């Protein structure tokens, strides 16, 4: 089992508010690939690996402007690298790796995938990538176990718009609940994983493809979470988080590719090339 001393005591609100990080060891119980959606929540021992729609793609249909076919193809190409890295990462930590789907998925809807079909497609994608599908998240305002695996993962949005107003890009082995609470600081953020990048490049994925899929996810998040626009111009819209669960060379390469992607995103936004889309 893996223990980290980088966790922050989330129960001690006084310390949190004072900005004092009280260290606490949290036992990692699982690694979970979930949608980048800000309302896909994990319990204290679960590491979230954020990927738009958990990497599920549909070759045609839906809104091809919001989720262009070329990016569906790219996601289909990249997601096995993400899952391959995630399996190794989970194994190294002595835990299992899972993937999940969730209600009201913007990445699914953008591709014309109905909720019932999303479950089938995520299961299928998981099977192809040799990873276990843990299930479809339940809507709950409180932490909730998914299925019978003692896996604390749930979804908090009951209709209504996205509340995310920034992005967290992870470079050092995903993000835990307490880390996310701290980084969010009372706001809400999309979680986009770049933890897999170094391994994917080593396995032959082109750097261009890694950059492009990160930029695309930022673009999709920007389109569907209207509050993000209000903070553009503020560098904090793109927060890079290193959980320090990877070797330093991996997190350095991951961060390098993240920085390149963020620069492209900023330029595109400045030029007015990114548009808002309707999504509840
Ligand atoms: Zn989603």
Give an overview of the whole structure.
This protein has one domain (32-270). Helices cover 37% and strands 20% of the residues. A four-stranded parallel beta sheet has the order 5-3-6-7. Helix 2 (69-92) packs across helix 7 and helix 7 (207-224) packs across helix 8. By secondary structure, the protein is an alpha/beta fold. Bound molecules: zinc ion. The site of zinc ion has 7 residues, from helix 3.
Describe the structure in brief:
Helix content is 37%, strand content 20%. The protein is an alpha/beta fold. It has one domain (32-270).
- The number of E-state strands comes to 12
Bound molecules: zinc ion
Main beta-sheet strand count, sense and barrel state: 4 strands, parallel
Give the DSSP E fraction (strand runs of 2 or more residues): 15-25%
N-end to C-end Cα span: 40 Å
Tally of contiguous helical segments: 8
């Amino acid at each position: 089992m893996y223990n980290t001393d980088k966790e922050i005591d989330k129960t001690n609100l006084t310390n949190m508010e004072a900005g004092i990080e009280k260290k606490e060891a949290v036992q990692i119980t699982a690694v979970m690939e979930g949608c980048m959606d800000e309302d896909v929540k994990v319990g204290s021992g679960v590491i979230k690996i954020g990927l738009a729609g958990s990497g599920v793609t549909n070759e045609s249909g839906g809104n091809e402007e919001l989720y262009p076919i070329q990016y569906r193809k790219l996601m289909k190409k990249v997601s096995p690298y993400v899952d391959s890295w995630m399996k190794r990462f989970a194994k190294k930590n002595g835990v299992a790796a899972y993937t999940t789907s969730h209600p009201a998925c913007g990445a699914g809807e953008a591709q014309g995938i109905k909720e019932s079909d999303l479950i089938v497609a995520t299961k299928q994608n998981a099977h192809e990538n040799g990873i276990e599908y843990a299930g479809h998240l339940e809507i709950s305002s409180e932490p909730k176990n998914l299925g019978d695996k003692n896996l604390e993962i749930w979804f908090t949005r009951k209709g209504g718009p996205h509340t995310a107003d920034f992005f967290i890009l992870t470079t050092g082995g995903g993000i835990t609940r307490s880390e996310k609470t701290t980084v969010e600081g009372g706001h809400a953020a999309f979680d986009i994983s770049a933890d897999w990048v170094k391994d994917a490049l080593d396995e032959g994925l082109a750097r261009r493809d890694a950059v492009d899929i990160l930029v695309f996810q930022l673009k999709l998040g920007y389109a569907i979470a209207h509050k993000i626009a209000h903070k553009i111009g503020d560098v904090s819209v793109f927060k890079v988080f290193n959980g320090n669960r990877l070797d330093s060379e991996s997190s350095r390469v991951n961060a390098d590719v993240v920085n390149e992607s963020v620069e492209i995103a900023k330029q595109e936004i400045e030029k007015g090339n990114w548009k808002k889309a309707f999504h509840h």
